Amino acid sequence: MIPRPFEYHAPTSVDDAIRLLGDYGDSAKLLAGGHSLLPMMKLRFASPDHLIDLNRIPSLKYIEQEGNEIRIGAMTCENDLIWSTLLKEKVPLIVETAGLISDPQVRYKGTIGGDISHGDPGCDHPALMLCLGASFVLRGPNGERVVPADGYFLGTYYTAIEPNEIMTEIRIPIPPAGSGWCYSKLKRKTGDFATAASAVLLQMSGDIVNNVSIGLTNVAPTALKAKEAEKALLGKRLDDTAIEAAAQAAMKICDPAEDLRGSVEYKTAMAGEMTRRALRTAAARAKR
Ligand SMILES: Cc1cc2nc3c(=O)[nH]c(=O)nc-3n(C[C@H](O)[C@H](O)[C@H](O)COP(=O)(O)OP(=O)(O)OC[C@H]3O[C@@H](n4cnc5c(N)ncnc54)[C@H](O)[C@@H]3O)c2cc1C
Questions:
Q1: Beta-bridge partners for 211
Q2: Whose CA is nearest to atom 10 of ligand 1?
Q3: pLDDT of residue 270
Q4: How much distance in Å is there from the Cα of 55 to the middle of ligand 1?
């Protein structure tokens, strides 16, 4: 299908983009990689009168370290995440996750900021950001605010960003050296969204779990932080009993929608299985 007619704007600075958002309000949409927005416009689920393209703002594309944080510009594409030597060294969980997103065509255009801003529970970055304890920099006409990922995802296609704000940066605390990590994702075929996926970051002291964080993808109206599953592991020996308790706790909070990827029961069971697998791989990668 063909989208409704719209006016195209290509600002060259964040300030100009914010000004345009202020001028056109609810009738405007920001365009990043376009791989979620344009299909929605073609299906006429979205019909903005004004499209504000962020692709001519080079200052929104970077990956850098600032103290104990990694800072990523919102317009950084998946492919840049995959090839970043800084991320490979400091937060390899991001590299692993980005490599499992769709196919090269999508990864060359799709951006981390767009993936998070879209608010689609099927997107992989939201659960990853919950797992990593990330925060987001949102800039509007009155300046900047920094909001934690935990609490940001309010519903399907609904986040805490205001219509006059732009996500400019993603901030990620660098996990302690020796952390174990894994993104375990079940998908039907290359290019498909997750049937279910689980992101795990953990620190071990011998066989005991010192710290653990778990995020779940596409098993509820939003990405989930599996807090009860984390509690089931904290301070425990990471054996089959503890892993099973965590998997059961993760499944308890699932509320997926039935669709072509499977029934509610199947998706819930797969969230448990992805959590078991991610925990085992993360434990094997952790230094003790
Ligand atoms: C075939 C296919 C398979 C896919 N599979 C996966 C997958 O497995 N996992 C996955 O995670 N994703 C997947 N995607 C989605 C893809 O990663 C998208 O690129 C991503 O969800 C949106 O990023 P984008 O840069 O394309 O954003 P756009 O489509 O341009 O924008 C998406 C939304 O975010 C808003 N937005 C964008 N940038 C900002 C910003 N800086 N500040 C505020 N709002 C902003 C836009 O206004 C729009 O509402 C798939 C897409 C396709 C086409």
A1: 203
A2: 123
A3: 98
A4: 13
Q: Supply the residue whose CA is at minimum distance from atom 53 of ligand 1.
A: 35
Cα(278) to ligand 1 centroid in Å equals 25
Strands 28-31 and 50-53, bridge-based pairing = parallel
Query: How far apart, in whole angstroms, are the C-alpha atoms of residue 116 and residue 74?
Result: 9
**Token pair 């089959």: residue:** 240
Average pLDDT (243-266) is 97
Q: Residue 12: pLDDT above 90?
A: yes
For 179-221, how does the pLDDT look when each residue is reduced to its tens digit (9 = 90+)? Answer: 999 999 999 998 899 999 999 999 999 999 999 999 999 999 9
| Ligand 1 interacting residues, C-beta cut-off 6 A | 29-37, 54, 74, 101-102, 106, 110-111, 113-115, 117-118, 123-125, 161, 166-167, 191, 193
0.85 surpassed by pTM = yes
Among protein residues, the one whose CA lies closest to atom 44 of ligand 1: 117
CATH 3.30.390.50 location in the chain: 180-285
Q: Could you tell me the distance, in angstroms and rounded to a whole number, from the CA of residue 203 to the centre of ligand 1?
A: 31
pLDDT tens sequence across 70-127: 999 999 999 999 999 999 999 999 999 999 999 999 999 999 999 999 999 999 999 9
Q: In this structure, are residues 31 and 55 in contact, taking their beta carbons and an 8 Å threshold?
A: yes
Query: Backbone dihedral region of 31: left (phi > 0), alpha (psi from -120 to 50 degrees) or beta?
Result: beta
Intervals of CATH 3.30.465.10 along the chain: 67-173
Alpha-carbon distance of 237 to 216, in angstroms, equals 22
Amino acid at 154: L
Q: Which superfamily, per CATH, for 180-285?
A: CO dehydrogenase flavoprotein, C-terminal domain (3.30.390.50)
